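Slide 14.
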Amino acid sequence: MINVTKTFLPPQAEYFAILERVWSNAWITNRGPLVQELESVLQQRLTSRELVLMANGTLPLQIAIKSLDLKGEIITTPFSYIATTSSILWEGCCPVFVDIDPNYLTINENLIEAAITTKTTAILATHVYGNPCHVESISKLSKKYNLKVIYDAAHCFGVEYKGQSIFNYGDISTCSFHATKLFHTGEGGGLFCSKDLRKNIFDRHNFGHDKPGTFSRIGINAKMSELQAALGLAVLPYLGELVWARKQRVEVYNQALKKGRRLSIRASTKWNYSYYPLILESEEMVKQLIDIAIAEGINLRRYFYPSLNMLPFVDYKAMPQAERIAKTVVCLPLYHDLALKDQYKVIEIINNL
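Slide 15: predicted structure.
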């Protein structure tokens, strides 16, 4: 199969060499030296705020909501992965959806203010496919109404906006290091925040421990293991090569595709080439494409689908742009060693629709 994505695996010998340190220390979890090293290396490489590594990419969202002591309503986007909405609900808050910009596919900053009520405590917005939200407008609204801002930056490893790491925006930014991501630890994630917030967040991701034998606050077990950190340390040296390879394949799509509309990348963005979404004319065309592709051994993905305001466990409110995009967008294969012949096979199918 030609899959929509493919996990980059570093040479086994390099991973095993790092694992030797784990075996030597006999230290598998509980904030071992490799986790601490990976945190430090990532902060330096990304020139980001404080980082706390975690076991997956959803836990940072949940801990962010808990650490900021959010209650009531949280304004969010319907065009994201389900973890964004489910984390709000899981923490006992109410998601209030605001429709998306049809070009950037991020939350429409011009519609946020109308959704703010006396119960609103935060904005949780997603940078979609590595494309930043309009962070300036969101920042102004947060100050005007005394709201907290969390960014779900799961797709954004390496993205910069106006010369800053995307992780430096908002009160908290979160990221996923899942195996399908540009940078990964197999399964994992991270939370980026200020030094002032780090202590609260650190304790909450470690059962609430303030120090051994004492507990300062409610916490859960969200710690990353040494095995995950070892994989991240083995993957990281190849990141520049992986981004370059993806960029070449994006340029092939851009030049050869004759159908569909591409994602508009916000100005002043250093993009990471993490996904290649294509917006087609209708949902029927998307379904036709997927059926033809499967018959040809190609796995595409409707990402994100459905629009989250249509989930059975939330109150429905029409989001015309998000619903339309969710029905008509499809992500094409994009990974570091996607063969040119396979890529042109995908392109031919689309152009012949």
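Speaker note: The chain has a mean pLDDT of 97.
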